Amino acid sequence: MAIAISTATLCAAGARADEAGVPAISFSGFGTLGVVRSGEKRADLTAHIIKPNGAGYSRTWSASVDSLLGAQMTAHLTPRLSAVVQVIAEQNYDDSYRPHLEWANVRYELTPELAIRAGRIVLPGFLVSETRKVAYTYPWVRPPPAVYGLVPITNSDGADVSYRLRLGSVAHTIEVTVGDNELKLANDIGTAKAKGSRGITYTTEYGPLTMRATYKRSSVTISAVAALFDSFRQFGQSGNALADKYGSVDKPFIVRGIGATYDPGAWFVTGEWGRVETNSFLGDRSGWYGSGGYRSGKFTTFVTFARARADNLDEPGLDVSALPPSLAAPATGLNASLNSILRNKPVHDTWSVGGRWDFMKNASATLQFDHIRIGPGSTGPLTNIQPDFQTGGQANVFGAAIAFVL
């Protein structure tokens, strides 16, 4: 059985304003209860960089990696005007579980094909971006981080315009988005602000085939590294050059992606590629994955291969030999700090195998095993790196999750 459900349609099917304009309000929910075990004891496996800890160093088994609860209210105010509010409780940057506002927007249909939306909206792009928080809608425990880790931001404060056109049996959707966002980083070390974001996403659907392409551009400032590069500037021309090259103040952040999935029901194949280009310490990164699975009754088995690549994992930095002894020591420290953040860019190959059991209506249980081979000089997909961690190497990760929609 193919899964085709989105958070925008989690509400009761009949919850629409009638032709007289009488409002209709509906409520829905979703969640994931998961545990993860990592064999790497000098770093943590987390779902994304926003989370401060996970499985591995902090604890052998962690429920914080994938677990979350979400609630959504949709109000159909008139046949053309609707509003949605979605709240999610999951591990935050400060290790709390305070609920946060994921969506809060109004949508107006100018025509059956053309709609505008404003407020806090989903940030589209990759194939499961709209349902990224709803694990019930995809076969894995979590979307492959080689692609979805490229853009950890899931929403935007702004507006979008979507146009959907059906030509025969093919549906075409074009979505244009504008907005800003602010992301608080793990352990309260600072923020990442994206402003002036604009993007376009094109989706085509033909029977069991869905294809998507996306392009986004924004200006990003990451406050956590500002002090480091201010210190580099104290070393004159060479320090200024390094700060200009790796600093992150109003730097362009460009995202490109393509993907396709074919799901006739009894089996599926899906794959995506994404690339991020920046003029900062984040560098240029890319990732892709291919995944396929087979369904038999309530059971699904799947296998996935994913690859993440990044450039510039090390930097000679300041020429310490040209400095007097009083400046050589601090310069050495700055070089070490710079290389430490450069090594945090993910380079890895990951094989994943797993199975899903749809044990009851709107609820599933998934098991997944990941074998991660980390590239030389990189920390791979791991975070919360400890001083004795050795770059490269490999890690084995086991995950189990129960996902549901209400």
Write a concise keyword list for the protein shown above:
single chain; 406 residues; mainly beta; Porin; 10% helix
Question: What's the SSE blueprint?
Answer:
Blueprint: E1 24-38, E2 44-45, E3 55-56, E4 61-62, E5 68-76, E6 81-90, E7 100-109, E8 114-122, H1 145-148, E9 155-167, E10 170-184, E11 191-206, E12 209-222, H2 226-232, H3 236-246, E13 251-262, E14 267-278, E15 285-296, E16 299-310, H4 325-342, E17 348-360, E18 363-374, E19 382-383, E20 394-405
Antiparallel strand pairs: 1-4, 1-5, 1-20, 2-3, 2-19, 5-6, 6-7, 7-8, 8-9, 9-10, 10-11, 11-12, 12-13, 13-14, 14-15, 15-16, 16-17, 17-18, 18-20
Explain what the structure shows:
Helix content is 10%, strand content 50%. With 406 residues, it is mainly β. Helix 2 runs antiparallel to helix 3. The radius of gyration is 22 Å and the shape is globular.
